[in-house]
Amino acid sequence: MPRTYSLCAGTIYEMLDIVISDINECRVFRNLCVNGRCENLVGLFRCECKTGYQVDATGGNCTDIDECQNPDNCLYGTCINTPGGYRCRCPPNFELNPAGTGCVGLYSVRLQFTSFYYPNTDILVLLSKLLLVVDYYS
Fold it and tell me: Which of 53, 21, 23, 22 minimizes the C-alpha distance to 37?
């Protein structure tokens, strides 16, 4: 029902009773924020994405982040993007590092002894050397 108000001398304004209600987009549109959680706000909504996902250009969905685009991920191995993450495939003679973010080479350490005996003396010389043997693992 219209109401009439006099705000200034000689001017009459007509006001309508309007009820404004928020539409909960998260309930109305079930396909919002796939791979995330939809949060209703007054007049709009927001996507809270799961780990490994980011809000897309439309703002209405969460898309996978391709972690393999980051050169620091999966050093010395092959990066394989997975939904919400990635995994590293290490080449032969490499293994995944404890953090799972790259590959480290396997190597062995040997201690090698060499002895020389000088005839007609009581002198025995024992030499040792530490060898880091890397069969191209690093």
Answer: 53
Q: At residue 54, what is the residue type? A: Q
Torsion, Cα of 4, 7, 10, 13 (10° steps): -40
Q: 34-77, pLDDT tens digit by residue?
A: 999 999 998 899 999 999 999 999 999 999 999 999 999 999 99
| β-strand partners of 96 | 103
- Rounded distance between C-alpha atoms, residue 111 and residue 133, angstroms: 10
* One-character DSSP codes across 35-47: TEEEEEETTEEEE
Q: How far apart are CA 99 and CA 79, in angstroms?
A: 14
- Tell me what the pLDDT averaged over the chain comes to: 79
What does the alpha-carbon distance between residue 71 and residue 104 come to, in Å, rounded to a whole number? Answer: 16
For the whole model, what pTM was predicted? 0.59
